[in-house]
Specification:
The chain is mainly alpha-helical. It has one domain. 48% of the residues lie in helices and 5% in strands. It has helices at 17-20, 24-39, 65-85; strands at 2-3, 47-48. Strands 1-2 form a two-stranded parallel ribbon. The longest helix is centred in the C-terminal third of the chain and has 21 residues, at 65-85.
Amino acid sequence: MIAPPPIGEKYIDTPIGRPMGNQCSEKSLELAEHLENLLKGTGIHFADSKDHVTMNEIDYMHLNADGHRLMSKFIWGQVTRILNER
């Protein structure tokens, strides 16, 4: 399971900001912690992409081409690490 990067704070200044409401970026910062806690004891691998991938600078909540490239490198690293543990 991979937690997505958090929504950027500037989302609120985009056309999607009002429909999404206040505090989306703050709540998205908490997602990784919640997911990690849910997965404890399940044997399911967890990784947080927060420090490796960023959202685009259009709506601050989706990946652009560079973000997808970074995510694929991050996932590759996670899979490699898991396979090397075996």
